[in-house]
C-alpha cells in the first residue's frame, strides 16, 4: 500500500472529492449528451417539417422544370423565399444534383450537394448530413428529400433544407461552460464541507493519537480517553476503538504497576536482589531495570526483547486475527470460546516458538506431528481466555524501553539507564523473539553478560521454557553463577 505521508483527514477528503468529481463528471456528461441529442433531434424535426411543406408547395407545379435552363429567372425564388429565414436555407435540385433554385438568403453561394445526398435521391430516400457552406457561415445541418412527378411518382429532383449550426453550437458551448463552472463550484464547496465533516467524524482518532503520543512521551498510563456510551444502539466503530484503547492502556498500566505495588505496598519490599523473567517476563525484567534502576541488584532476562521488532509484531498480529476473525469471538462478547480461532492461534504459536530442528528430532514420521498438534490445541481450549491474550498481545507489540518516561523514545539512552548487573540468555533460531534484538540491546547496557542457551539443541524460544533437561541445567548453572557474583558468594544474603 502506498504511504502518502498525509493525514487521514486529508485522505478522506481527497477520496470524497475524487468520488464526487467522478459523479459530477458522469452527471455532466449525461446531461450534456442528452441535451445535445434533444436539440439535434428538434432541429431534424424542424427541417423535416419545412421540407415537407416546401415539397407540397412546389410538387404539383414542378412538372419538367427541374432542368436549370428551363427555369425562367425568378420563377421559383419567390416560392423559396417564403420558406427561407435567417439561418434557414432552401434550394431545389434536379435528379442529377444540379441546382435549379438557389437559396435566396445564402449570399454568394449555393448549398453543396454531397455524394451521399445524390445517392439518396437515386434511392428515393431522405438523408441528413452536416457540412460547411461556401459563404463562410458555420456548418449547416442539411436535409435532402426527393420530389416525385405527379401521376407517375418518378423521382425528378429534391428539395434541400439547411439550418445553420451556429445557434446549436453556441448553446452547447454555453452549456459546457455552465456545467464546468457549476461543477467546479460544487466540488469546491463539497471539499470544504467534507473537510469540516471529516474533522468531526474522525475527532476520536485525533484524541486517540494525542493520548497515545502523550503516553509514549511521558509514560503516564493513567491518561484515558473520554468515552460516552451512546443512548441508542451499541456504538459505532470509533466508539469501540476508543473503548478498546482505554482497556488496552488500563491493562498496560496494570501490568507495569501491579508487581511494583505488590512488592512495595503489600509486602513492604523496597529492594530486591534480582528480577527474573522469561519471554514476556524477560521483557518486563528489562523494563524494571529502566523504570526502577535502583530497585534491584540484578536482572535475569531469558529470551527477552527490549523493543518489539516488526517481525514479532507480524506474528502477534496473525495470532490475534486468527481469534478475532472467528465469528464466535463476536467482538470480544463471546459466550463460548472461539474454538476455530484458538486452534489456529495455537498452531501459529507452535510454528514460531519451536524450531524446525525440534520437530525433526521429535518426529521420525513427519505426519505424526498433526495428531500431536491437535492434542496441544485441545489442551488449552478449557483454560485459554482469548480476550486476555489479545490485550497481552497489544502490550507485547507496543513494548519499547525507549518509551519510558524521561527517555524521549531513545532506545539506547533507556538501556544505558540500567544500573543492575544483567544476564541475558537467548535461544538459537528464536522465531518469536529474534535473538538479534536482545543482543543489540546488550550493546547499550553498562554491565551485561549474554549467553546462548544450549546452542547445539536449537530449541528457539522454547529454550527458556524448561522443556529439555539440558536447557534447564544450563540455565540453572548460568543463573547460579551469575547470582553468586551478584551476592558475592551469598555474602550479601546473610
Helices, strands, pairings?
Blueprint: H1 8-62, H2 77-81, E1 88-94, E2 99-101, H3 115-122, E3 127-131, E4 140-148, E5 155-164, H4 166-201, H5 203-218, H6 237-266, E6 272-278, H7 280-291, E7 296-302, H8 310-324, H9 339-353, H10 356-362, H11 369-380, H12 386-397, H13 411-416, E8 421-427, H14 436-442, E9 448-453, H15 469-486
Parallel strand pairs: 6-7, 7-8, 8-9
Antiparallel strand pairs: 1-2, 1-5, 3-4, 4-5
Helix pairs in contact: 1-4, 6-12, 8-9, 8-12, 9-11
What does this structure look like?
There is one protein chain. The protein has 494 residues and is an alpha/beta fold. The protein has three domains: 11-171, Beta-Lactamase (2-Layer Sandwich), CATH 3.30.450; 204-258, no CATH class; 259-493, Rossmann fold (3-Layer(aba) Sandwich), CATH 3.40.50.1820. The protein has 15 helices and nine strands. It has helices spanning 8-62, 77-81, 115-122, 166-201, 203-218, 237-266, 280-291, 310-324, 339-353, 356-362, 369-380, 386-397, 411-416, 436-442, 469-486, and strands spanning 88-94, 99-101, 127-131, 140-148, 155-164, 272-278, 296-302, 421-427, 448-453. The strands form two sheets. Strands 2-1-5-4-3 form a five-stranded antiparallel beta sheet, with helices on both faces. It has a four-stranded parallel beta sheet with strand order 6-7-8-9, with helices on both faces. Strand 4 and strand 5 form a beta hairpin. The longest helix has 55 residues, at 8-62.
Amino acid at each position: 500500500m502506498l504511504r502518502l505521508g498525509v493525514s487521514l483527514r486529508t485522505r478522506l477528503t481527497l477520496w470524497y472529492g475524487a468520488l464526487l468529481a467522478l459523479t459530477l463528471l458522469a452527471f455532466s456528461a449525461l446531461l450534456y449528451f442528452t441535451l445535445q441529442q434533444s436539440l439535434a433531434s428538434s432541429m431534424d424535426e424542424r427541417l423535416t417539417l419545412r421540407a415537407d411543406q416546401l415539397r407540397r408547395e412546389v410538387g404539383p407545379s414542378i412538372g419538367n422544370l427541374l432542368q436549370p435552363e428551363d427555369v425562367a429567372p425568378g420563377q421559383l425564388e419567390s416560392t423559396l423565399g417564403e420558406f427561407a429565414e435567417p439561418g434557414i436555407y432552401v434550394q431545389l435540385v434536379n435528379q442529377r444534383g444540379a441546382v435549379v433554385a438557389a437559396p435566396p438568403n445564402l449570399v454568394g453561394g449555393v448549398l453543396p450537394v454531397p455524394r451521399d445526398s445524390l445517392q439518396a435521391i437515386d434511392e428515393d430516400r431522405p438523408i441528413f448530413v452536416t457540412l460547411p457552406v461556401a459563404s463562410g457561415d458555420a456548418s449547416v445541418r442539411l436535409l435532402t428529400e426527393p420530389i416525385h412527378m405527379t401521376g407517375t411518382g418518378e423521382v425528378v429532383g429534391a428539395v434541400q433544407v439547411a439550418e445553420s449550426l451556429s445557434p446549436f453550437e453556441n448553446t452547447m458551448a454555453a452549456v459546457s461552460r455552465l456545467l464546468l463552472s457549476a461543477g467546479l463550484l460544487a466540488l469546491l464547496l463539497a471539499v470544504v464541507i467534507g473537510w469540516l465533516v471529516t474533522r468531526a467524524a474522525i475527532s476520536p482518532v485525533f484524541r486517540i493519537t494525542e493520548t497515545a503520543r502523550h503516553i509514549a512521551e511521558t509514560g503516564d498510563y493513567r491518561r484515558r480517553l473520554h468515552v460516552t456510551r451512546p443512548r441508542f444502539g451499541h456504538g459505532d466503530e470509533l466508539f469501540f476503538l476508543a473503548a478498546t484503547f482505554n482497556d488496552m492502556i488500563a491493562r498496560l498500566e496494570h501490568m507495569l504497576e501491579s508487581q511494583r505495588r505488590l512488592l512495595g505496598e503489600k509486602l513492604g519490599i523496597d529492594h530486591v536482589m534480582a528480577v527474573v523473567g522469561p519471554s514476556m517476563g524477560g521483557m518486563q525484567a528489562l523494563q524494571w531495570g529502566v523504570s526502577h534502576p535502583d530497585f534491584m541488584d540484578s536482572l535475569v532476562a531469558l529470551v527477552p526483547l527490549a523493543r518489539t521488532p516488526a517481525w514479532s509484531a507480524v506474528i502477534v498480529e496473525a495470532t490475534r486475527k486468527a481469534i478475532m476473525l472467528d465469528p464466535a469471538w463476536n467482538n470480544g462478547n463471546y459466550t463460548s470460546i472461539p474454538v476455530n480461532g484458538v486452534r489456529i492461534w495455537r498452531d501459529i504459536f507452535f510454528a514460531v516458538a519451536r524450531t524446525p530442528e525440534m520437530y525433526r528430532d521429535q518426529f521420525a514420521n513427519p505426519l505424526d506431528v498433526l495428531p500431536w498438534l491437535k492434542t496441544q490445541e485441545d489442551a488449552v481450549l478449557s483454560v485459554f481466555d482469548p480476550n486476555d491474550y489479545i490485550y497481552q498481545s497489544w502490550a507485547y507489540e507496543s513494548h519499547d524501553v525507549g518509551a519510558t518516561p524521561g527517555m524521549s523514545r531513545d532506545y539506547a539512552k533507556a538501556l544505558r539507564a540500567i544500573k543492575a548487573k544483567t544476564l541475558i540468555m537467548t535461544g538459537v533460531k528464536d522465531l518469536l523473539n529474534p535473538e538479534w534484538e536482545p543482543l543489540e540491546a546488550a550493546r547499550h547496557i553498562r554491565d551485561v553478560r549474554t549467553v546462548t542457551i544450549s546452542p547445539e539443541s536449537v530449541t528457539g524460544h522454547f529454550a527458556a521454557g524448561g522443556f529439555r533437561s539440558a536447557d534447564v541445567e544450563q540455565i540453572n548453572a548460568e543463573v547460579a553463577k551469575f547470582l553468586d557474583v551478584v551476592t558475592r558468594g551469598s555474602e550479601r544474603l546473610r
